[in-house]
Amino acid sequence: MANFKGHALPGSFFLLFGLWWSVKYPLQHIWKKRQHGRRQDLPLLSNKIDLIEGIIKVFFAFVGIMAEQFVPDGPHAHLYNGDWVKLMNWQHSTMYLFYGISGIADVLSMSPLPVPAGLDRFALSLALFIEGFLFYFHVHNRPALDQHIHSLLLVAVFSGSASTMLEVFMRDNSLLELIRSSLAIVQGTWFYQIGFVLFPLNGEDWDLESHGNIMFVTMCFCWHIAVAFLIVGINYTVVWWTTKKFGERHKANTEISLRKTTYTDSSSQKALLQESDEES
Amino acid sequence: MANFKGHALPGSFFLLFGLWWSVKYPLQHIWKKRQHGRRQDLPLLSNKIDLIEGIIKVFFAFVGIMAEQFVPDGPHAHLYNGDWVKLMNWQHSTMYLFYGISGIADVLSMSPLPVPAGLDRFALSLALFIEGFLFYFHVHNRPALDQHIHSLLLVAVFSGSASTMLEVFMRDNSLLELIRSSLAIVQGTWFYQIGFVLFPLNGEDWDLESHGNIMFVTMCFCWHIAVAFLIVGINYTVVWWTTKKFGERHKANTEISLRKTTYTDSSSQKALLQESDEES
Amino acid sequence: MANFKGHALPGSFFLLFGLWWSVKYPLQHIWKKRQHGRRQDLPLLSNKIDLIEGIIKVFFAFVGIMAEQFVPDGPHAHLYNGDWVKLMNWQHSTMYLFYGISGIADVLSMSPLPVPAGLDRFALSLALFIEGFLFYFHVHNRPALDQHIHSLLLVAVFSGSASTMLEVFMRDNSLLELIRSSLAIVQGTWFYQIGFVLFPLNGEDWDLESHGNIMFVTMCFCWHIAVAFLIVGINYTVVWWTTKKFGERHKANTEISLRKTTYTDSSSQKALLQESDEES
Amino acid sequence: MANFKGHALPGSFFLLFGLWWSVKYPLQHIWKKRQHGRRQDLPLLSNKIDLIEGIIKVFFAFVGIMAEQFVPDGPHAHLYNGDWVKLMNWQHSTMYLFYGISGIADVLSMSPLPVPAGLDRFALSLALFIEGFLFYFHVHNRPALDQHIHSLLLVAVFSGSASTMLEVFMRDNSLLELIRSSLAIVQGTWFYQIGFVLFPLNGEDWDLESHGNIMFVTMCFCWHIAVAFLIVGINYTVVWWTTKKFGERHKANTEISLRKTTYTDSSSQKALLQESDEES
Where are the transmembrane segments (chains A, B, C, D) (predicted)? Predict the structure, then answer.
C-alpha cells in the first residue's frame, strides 16, 4: 500500500509492540525477583500475558493479511491470471504470515506441550529476517532517497533479527530484551518517517535525488535510535519506580494487618519476615 | 546435469534427509529422557541408527559421484585433454565428495575411536559450505532469473552450514536440530522448484528476465520456508504423540504383568515405581 | 571541520581514552586479585574512577557538540533554512551525542540503580557503531586516497564496536579490554594520520589518486596497529611491575610495624599471614 | 617476490606449521589425559615445546623480513626516495612482522608473567587477519585468474583467522585445533598451487582470462581442503595409535619391574593400580 497509511499501519504495530515490551520485560524481571518470597499468582499472570500477546500477534497478522488481500486495489487472493497479480500486496501478506507464525510459536511455547526451548524467539527472529529479506529485493530501481530510506529500515530489521536470535541462546537477558524493544520502536517510528518523506502530508515533495536529503535522513535515523533508547529507559525507570512504591505501600498494609493477627501463628510470621528481607 | 532430473535427484536426497532428521531427532530426545528409567537397549539402537545414516550418506555420495562421472555425456573420469572436460560434472562430483566425507565423519564419531567432539557436525557444515561455495562461482553469466533462483538456494545452503556449525559447540540443542531439518527440506523442495522453473514440465518457458518472475520467486522461497517448518512441526507432534500413546499402552501392559508377579520381589517393584515417576 | 585540527581533536580524545584504559584495566585486575586479602577501600576507588570516567565522557561529548555547532562556520543550531545547514557538523554532533549517551550509561551502571548488566559496554559499542555508520555514508564522492584512508578508520571503528559488544557478554575479560584499549589508540593515531595526509603541515599535498599512496597507507595502518599493541603491552608491564614493587615495599613496611606490635593480637597476625599468602 | 620461489617460501612455512600442529595437538591431548596418573614431566615438556615453537616463529619472521628487505631487488630498508620504494616487499615484511609478534606472544604466554589468557591465539588470529587484509588490497588491477586464485587464498586465511579467534574463547578445543592445522596446510599447499599456476615450471603459461581455468581452480581449492583434512586425520590416527602402542609396552615393562619389587611397598602398588585404571 504505497501511501502514508500503508506505512503508518505497520509502523503503529511495531511501535505498539516496542512500547509494550519496554513495559512488560522490566515488570517480569521484578516479578521474578519477588517470586521467591510470595505472590505465586503473578508468574501465572505473566504466563497469561505472554499467551495473550501471542494471540494478539496472530490476530494482527490475520488482519494485516486480509487488509493486503482485500483492499479495493488488492489481489483478492488471485495470484496469477496471465501475469502476476499485485505482487507487492502478496509480499506484504507473506511478511504478515511469518509474524502470524511467530504468534503461534508464542502460544505453543506457553502451552504445556514439550516445545523446544527458544522456539518463540527463533520464530520472531525468522519473521524479522523474512521481512528484511523481502524488503531487500523490494527496493531496486527506485529513486536514490527512496532506496536509502528503506535500506536504513533494513538496518533496524536485521539488527532486530540478530539480537532476537541471540535471545534464543541467552534467554531472559535484560539487555537483549531492551535492545529488542528499542529496535521495534525504531522500526515503528521509522515507518512513520518513511511515510512523511515519501508521501508528505503537507504536499511539498522531497527531492528524491538530493545528496543533502540522503545525508539528513541517515543522521535522522540515528536520532530515532537515540529517542527509542530514551523512551525505553524512561519506561524502565517508571516501571521500577512504580513497583517499588506499590511494593512499599503493600508491605506497609501487610504489616498493619500483621499487627492485628499477631501472636497467633509464628510460622506465617517467619514467612513474612523472610519476604521483607528479600524485598529490601 | 542441466535438466529437470539433475535437480530432482539432489532435491530428493535433501528432502529425504530433512524428513528423516525431523523424525529422528524428536525420537532421540524422547529416548534420552526415558533412558534414566529403563530400556537401556534403545540408546544403543539410536547409535546404530546414526551409524547406518552415515553409511547411507557415504553410499549416496558414491552413487552421486559415479552418476556425474559416467552418465553418457559425463567426463568419464577425464579431467584434461587440451581443455578442461565437463567441469560442471566435476564440480558436482566434488560436492558429493564432501558429503561422502561427512558420512565418514559420522561413522567415525559413532565408532569407539577417540574422535574430537563435534567432528560429524563440522564435516556436515563443511560439506554445505563447499556446496554453497562452488554454486556461488557457478552461476555467473546466466539470465537474471536463473542467477536469482540459485542465489536463493545459497541462502538455504549457507544458513544450513552456519546452523550446523553452531551445533558443533551447542550439541543436542533441539531447536538447532529442527532448524537443520527444516533447511534440508527447504533445500530439497527448492531444488525441485528450480527444476520446475528452468525446465518446465509443461513446456511453457518462463521469461528469465522478467522482474515480476523474480519478485514471485523471492516470495515463493519464503513460502517454502514456511511449509518446511510446518512439516517439521507436524512430524515433531506426531512423533511426540505416538511415543506418548505407545508409552502409556506399554506402561499399562507392564502394570498388568506386574500384578501377576506381585508380592515376589520388592526391589524390582521399586525400580518400576521409579520408572513411572520419571515417565509421567 | 575539514582541517588538521578537526582531525587532531577527536584523535586526541580517542588516544587519551585508549592510553587511560590501558592503565586502568590492568590496575583494576590487580586490585581485584588483592581484594580477597585486604584493602577493601580500593574497589570503591575503582568504582569512583569509572564514575569520573563517565562524567568526563559526558563533558567531552558536550564540548564536542558545542564546538561543532558554534564554531564560526558552524550551523549555530540551525538545521534547515530552505536547504540543510552544515550537515557535516550536524553529523559530527550526532556522533558526540552517542558518546555522551555512553557516558550517561557509564554513570548509571555505577549508580545503585538496577541497571541491566552490560548496559555501559553496549552503549559504548553503539556509539562506535553510530560513528562508523555515519562515516560510512560520509565519504562517497571523494578522491580515492581520501575514501581509502577513511575506510581504514572504519576498520578500527567497527572492530572496536564488535569487541566492545563481546564485552557485554564476556565481562572482565582482560584480553577484550586490552583489544578495546588498543583499537582506541589506533583510532586516535589514525585520526592524526588522516590529518597529516589530507592537510599536510609542510604544505606538500599528497597525490590523492596515486595507487602507491594507497598501498603505503594500507600498510601504514597495520603499523599503527602494531604500535598500539606495543604501547598497551608496555603500559600493562609498567603497571604490573610498579604495583608489584609497591606491593612488596608496602608489605615490608607492614611487616616492620607488625614486629613492633607483635605478641599483642594473634587474630590480626593470622589475617596478615593470610594476606601475604594471597599476595605471593 | 613475484616468482615461484616467492610463493614456495611462505607456502613451506605454513605447510610445516600445519603438519607440526597436526602432530603436536593430538599428542598434547593424550599427555593431558595421562597426566592425572603419572609422568608429571611430560606437561613440562609440552610447555617447552610451545616455547620453542614461539622462538622458531620469531626466527622465521625475522628471516622473512630480512629476505624481503635485502634480496638483490629489495628495498634495502629504504621506504621513500621521491616515490615509495618496492612497496610489495614492504607489505610482505609487514606480514612477517605480525607473525613475529605472534611468536613473541607465544613466548610470553609460556613465561610465568601474568599475560592475559588467550593472548597467543589472539596474536596469531591478528597475524592471519593482517595477512588477509594486506592481500585483499594487493590484488586489484590484475588478470582475472590471478585475482581469483589469490581470493581463494583469502578464504583460507580469513577462515583461519576466525577459527583461531574462536580458540581465544574456547581454549583446548580439539576440533578447533585440527581446523587450524588443516587451514594452515591448505594455505601452504595453495601457495604452491599459486606458484605452479602463475609461474609454471614447465614454461607453458596458463590463460589468465579463461573461464574454464577459473572454474577448475575453484574446484581445485576444494580438493586442497579435502587433502588437508585427510592429512590431519592420518597424523591424528598415527599419533593416537603410536602412543597407545608405546603406552602398552611401557605398562608391560612397568608390570614386569613391579613383579620383581612386589611384596615390598603396598602404597606404591596402590598408585600403580590407580594409574592403570586411568590409562585403560
Answer: 6-27, 48-67, 96-115, 122-139, 151-170, 182-202, 214-241
